[in-house]
Each structure stands twice: as structure tokens, then as C-alpha cells.
Amino acid sequence: MKFSGFELLKNAFTGQTGWTPHWRKAEPKSSYDVVIIGGGGHGLATAHYLAKEFGITNVAVIEKGWIGSGNVGRNTTIIRSNYLLPGNIPFYELGMKLWEGLEQELNYNAMVSQRGVLNLYHSDAQRDAFARRGNAMRLHGVDAELLDRDAVRTMAPFLDFNNARFPIQGGLLQRRGGTARHDAVVWGYARAADKRGVDVVENCEVIGLRQDNGKIIGVETTKGFIDAKRVGMSVAGNSSRLASLAGLRLPIESYVLQAFVSESLKPVIDCVVTFGAGHFYISQSDKGSLVFGGDLDPYPSYAQRGSLAVFSDVAENAIAMMPMLGRLRILRSWGGIMDMSMDGSPIIDKTPIEGLFFNGGWCYGGFKATPAAGFCFAHLIAKGAHHPVAAAYRLDRFATGRVIDEKGAGPTPNLH
Fold this sequence. Notes:
With 416 residues, the protein is α/β, with parallel strands linked by helices. It contains ten helices and 18 strands.
């Protein structure tokens, strides 16, 4: 079934009885060419691009829960490509271009909204750092504008410009940045991959990675053994636990990152805004809710739950930037498990085990990277070589010293 205006009209006059499930409830076969572990955005995007771009359709995506139950459904839905370093800018810009054509490619409404991402600066030093970042972006062909205080006031009059402690001096704007509906991204990729023959297997946990003479030969699951020529790991915050099944120790620690949703309001924030004097970011959903977040919890954890201490810190930042939020009522929160790498940049690479590939270490950037991560991971699995824009995301860079220190905090990711 293809979504179109005609289908909408036809179902409107036939009692909405013509819609079919978006993907099959597949059971695992005994053997696949490729098994992708992790039914989040990255895993499903990888399966989609393996089938679409490289013609590999004998693929299974194995998810221990339901698809979208992990980090891809536990974020603040922001998409952007406003990075600083050469190792990151081309990759995230590829992702931005894929976002811009994603709905047409998938024939699915992912509610991609390029409403702009505005990073506020509050000091001369921060202005200079943002000017450097903006210049780096423009040298790579990425849009960036450095705004002064008056331009920011015109664009976002709801901010507190009279705050003497954190005066807003201006901001760095990427107009092509914005938001996307995270659930719809999962559903769209699952539907597209399923249409090309990929098996999306839910409620099936991987409990072992079987090897023979240093080569992966399949995965042990709660639904039995599955033979596989190649296996891709794409499980975000559970990366270290999964890799340990193969005897691998990754340069990654897992931390909870909380996000919050408010009651619905009339339209008030028409872009994404980040607070430069603290770690706080906010946007407004199409339903009217304010969606926002801040820092990691200060200790490693695999728990998908929040804490009042972090909420208090996030609320302080929110009030400092927008005092009117003091009367806002919060409806719910959630916690996603961040796979924090030691240099703040991701890993897309082969592992020392032949046929076993790894995608992880996304820190705060996992959702916005979804299309590019899937595309480049599929390229690596299909061709055995890095896509040019992901060539720096090597696992051995921590041993060779070729780190991509975008915003890393070394062995203390909670200081990210």
C-alpha cells in the first residue's frame, strides 16, 4: 500500500477499512546474509539501505522489545548538522540531506520540520567560538548565520534579554535544522525495509554471538540460533553489554539522558533554542507540547528512569532562559541510555572478529544521525570499506591517538 491523497480519500469513504499493517510480524528464519541487532532508527535504516542501495535483502533486524522502544523513541527529536570538526561535518551534513528527502524516499510522513536551530551565546569568548564553528560549517557548504542580539530578539522575543547574569549577546543559527517525529521515523524505516523483504523480528533478544576461528557465524537468540554471514551491532546504550558477548571491551560508558514534555500550549516557540550558559534545549511539538532536556545523569547506568536532581537542574536552566516557563506543567519524562564515547564522536567500524560490525558511541547525537548512520553502516557491511564521510569513525582511533574531540570529556562522560 502506498500513501497518497487518493488513498486518503478512498479510505475516508470506505470507513477507514482499507489500511493494512505497515510491516509483517516476522519470525526469524534459520539463516540470513546479514543480521542487524537492534530495531531502533539506526538498525532499521541500515536494513533499509542494505536492501535499497546494495541489493542485500536477505536481512533480519532483531529487536529484544518492540521497535522504537529504545533511544529512538527517547529523545528530543532535534535534527541538525552544526558541527565543528572535519571528521564530523560531512557526515552530519549527509544526514541532513537525507532528512530533507526522507519522507519522499520512504513514502511516509516523518513530520520533518526545518524550523531552525538557534544556539545562544552569552559572552565574547562564546561568540568567537560560535563564529569559528559557523565558519567551519560554511567552508563545508553547510548553512550557518551568526546573529547579534537584536536579530535574536526579533526571532525569539520570548527569551529573557534582561538577565544580567546570563545576558544574551546573539546566537548561531542553522535554518535547515529542526525536528522530526521520532516514532514516525522508526515506522517509516520499518515499513520501507519490510517492503523490500527484510524481516523485522520483535521480542527476540540476542543472548550470544557465536564464533568459529575468529569469524562470526551467527547469533544465539531467545527464539533459537540464527546463522548469519555478517552481523551488525546497533544497540546504542547497550553496546558494551552486547559486545561483551563477543569478548570485546569498548571505549564507551552508558549514562541516562532525560527528556521532558509539557502540557500543550498555543504556538510560542517556532524554532529549536539551546541555552549557551547552561545545557538546555527546547522546541515545541506540533501538538503544542514543549519538549526539552539538559545534562546527563552524573553516574553510569542502564536504567531508563529519571531523577528529580537532574530535573531540578534542567528546570533552573529553563527558567534562566525563559522565565515564563515557571508556570508550565510537566506531563511526563523519559530516560534514554546514551552510549558515550571518550571523544564525543561515534564509531562505525569493523571489529577484530571477522564479519562482526559495530555502530555506536553516539553520545547526544544518535537521533539526528539516523539516516546517515544507517546509510554508512550499510555501506560498510555491504562493501567492507568505510563510506568516505564516515572514514574517521574508526574503533582503533583511541589507540592510535586520532580522536575526533568534538566535545569529549575523556573518561568522565558525565562532564560532556
